[in-house]
Specification:
This protein has 24 helices and 14 strands. It is α/β, with parallel strands linked by helices. The protein has four domains: 2-15 and 123-280, HUPs (Rossmann fold), CATH 3.40.50.620; 31-121, Rossmann fold (3-Layer(aba) Sandwich); 306-373, Glutamyl-tRNA Synthetase, domain 2, CATH 1.10.1160; 376-550, no CATH class. Strand 1, helix 3 and strand 2 (68-71) form a beta-alpha-beta unit. Helix 1 packs antiparallel against helix 5 (123-135), helix 14 (376-390) packs across helix 16 (402-408) and helix 19 (456-469) packs across helix 20. It is elongated, with a radius of gyration of 34 Å. The N and C termini lie far apart (100 Å). The chain binds glutamic acid. Glutamic acid is lined by residues 40-42, 74, 238, 252-253, 256.
Length: 552
């Protein structure tokens, strides 16, 4: 009775009971294996690649089981809030093909039957459950000031005792309702704490979907459930929200694993069915010899915007993340080169337990494969979409010479071993600049690459001879025969004696002619197939290139 009165004095504005909400938010009617997962970020405004990693895993688990994936905004720490962050989160995820079935749809809008989906709007719900716990003697007001809390901590440190607010250290735990009511009526500030029924002598066995079987002592901490500002702590909000929203699988960062004993206890005290948990390892990076968390401050690649700026296709980033979610993705991709990535079954059990290593070299590798599998038109389309924002000059060329642009992305695409030239769109310019006179003729002489076995004069001699006989209307075989004939002729002229003795030894000379021609036309010593390049350039352009090369 006394507890009921205390509850009433503490939260007089709360009129509902837990039953009201348990009835309002009906148990979901899930078919078969359907799973309900969520992405639950704090709206801090910074989109970390680890967020996409976690969201992708949760989205796949829900979608592949034909379940529900929803977005909940955890904004109970209002200091960290940034305007526009919700819309930015939604747009970022959408860009990675991650869409929500339910939850927030904008800064102040949502869809679904289990809302509000923003924690700051769920105050009444949390307080209703807190009031009920107080009424049942399972929670209590704590009036300890910061100074008192510090004093407790200092004493615990001095006595080498476990820190925290529990057992004999929990000063307000045993206040009578009468005492508590008197303090509240005096206007003393308070937080609401759980009266933990736990005993650290007892162990709890638990199965985590990622970490496997784990065991931990029961929690005996009287954790804060409602802060002095009336908002819930993460622990309490997690319990209430995931229960009422019907989450079946809580996938979240492993930094929450140490809090699991608290959460297990909260679900029990609240009488809720526990969800399954999968604690996802953080995204790590190798820094010299040490593995450390990808840091917002030190690593540009921790920001989602980095991938956009560099021009990694979204598909590449998704496939790369799937690779670190489940390392068997790579093999699956090899066996199913044309399948949509959504057909790959993500399994939390197959996730690395110790930390997913993020590695740009591997990302480049994955991305080259992704781009290489795309049709040229698609590459062109994605490239100009990127260039429009990040390389206006290239955008203009690509639009002006659209046909050439599409053709150059088609070089060697159809063959058995398609080229893997680009990992990201910012790689393109350097590799194709010679297709555009405006860029090509700006190149300084020092940058011109020659075949390793000749100087500029020799390259000019060979290119000059070839310039007289080239014919791009020939089919590839005839074109090559001509190149070979030229090689023999030039080789013969250069070294009649050797040639006469052993004509078949002149194989190298074809590559010499090709090398000199390549330098003249592209200023590079390593390019895709020369015949194809000449076809894309057209006769006039090739002629002009030879002419200007000879004038250098
Ligand atoms: N808001 C929490 C975080 O960003 C979410 C953890 C969870 O998914 O439960 O870490």
């Amino acid at each position: 009775m006394d507890n009921k009165r205390l509850a009433e004095v503490m939260l007089p504005e709360i009129k509902h009971t837990p039953e009201y909400y348990l009835d309002k938010y009906k148990k979901r009617n899930l078919k078969g294996e359907a799973k309900v997962t969520r992405y639950a970020p704090s709206p801090t405004g910074f989109q970390h690649i680890g967020g996409v990693f976690a969201a992708l895993a949760a989205e796949r688990i829900a979608k592949q089981s034909e379940g529900v994936f929803y977005l909940r905004i955890e904004d109970t720490d209002q200091k960290r809030e940034v305007e526009g962050a919700i819309a930015d989160t939604i747009a970022t995820m959408h860009n990675f093909n991650i869409d929500f079935d339910e939850g927030m749809t904008g800064e102040d809008t949502s869809k679904g039957e289990y809302g509000p989906y923003k924690q700051s709007e769920r105050g009444e719900i949390y307080k209703t459950f807190a009031k009920d716990l107080i009424g049942r003697g399972l929670a209590y007001p704590c009036f300890c000031s910061e100074e008192e809390m510090n004093a407790i901590r200092e004493e615990q440190t001095a006595m080498k005792e476990t820190p925290g607010y529990y057992g004999k250290w929990a000063k307000c735990r045993d206040l009578t309702s009468k005492e508590a009511i008197a303090r509240i009526e005096k206007g003393d500030k308070f937080v609401i704490r759980l009266k933990s029924p736990g005993n650290i002598e007892n162990r709890v066995d638990f199965h985590d979907l990622v970490k496997g079987d784990i065991s931990f002592p029961e929690s005996n901490q009287d954790i804060v459930i409602i802060k002095s500002d009336g908002l819930p702590t993460y622990h309490f909000a997690h319990g209430i929200d995931d229960a009422l929203m019907g989450t079946t699988h809580v996938t979240r960062g492993e930094e929450w694993l140490p809090s699991l004993p608290i959460h297990v206890q909260l679900f029990e005290v609240l009488g809720f069915e526990k969800p399954q948990y999968g604690h996802i390892p953080g995204v790590m990076k190798l820094d010299g010899e040490t593995k450390r968390k990808l840091s917002k401050r030190k690593d540009p690649e921790s920001a989602v915007s980095y991938y956009k700026e560099q021009g990694y296709p979204v598909q590449s980033v998704i496939e790369y993340l799937l690779n670190i979610i489940n390392s068997n993705f790579e093999q699956w991709r090899e066996e199913n080169p044309t399948a949509d990535y959504t057909e790959f079954p993500v399994a939390l059990e197959k996730m690395s337990k110790s930390g997913a290593l993020f590695d740009i070299i591997k990302l480049n590798d994955v991305s080259k494969n992704v781009i290489c599998r795309m049709k040229a038109d698609k590459v062109y389309e994605l490239y100009i979409a990127w260039a429009k924002d990040y390389d206006k000059e290239m955008y203009d060329f690509m639009v002006k010479y659209e046909e050439r642009g599409k053709a150059l992305f088609n070089i060697d695409k159809e063959g058995p071993k398609p080229r893997k030239d680009y990992a990201k769109w910012s790689d393109v310019k350097e590799k194709v600049f010679y297709f555009f006179d405006e860029l090509f003729y700006n190149e300084v002489k020092e940058n011109i690459e020659l075949p390793s076995n000749m100087d500029l004069e020799e390259a000019k001699r060979i290119a000059g001879a070839y310039a007289k006989i080239f014919d791009i209307s020939n089919d590839k075989d005839t074109w090559f025969e001509n190149l070979k004939a030229m090689a023999l002729e030039l080789g013969y002229a250069a070294d009649k004696k050797t040639f006469k003795k052993n004509p078949e030894n002149y194989k190298g000379m074809v590559s010499d002619v090709a090398g000199a021609v390549r330098s003249a036309l592209t200023h590079r010593s390593n390019t895709p197939d020369l015949y194809t390049i000449m076809q894309i350039m057209d006769k006039d352009m090739v002629e002009e290139r030879f002419k200007r090369f000879l004038d250098i």
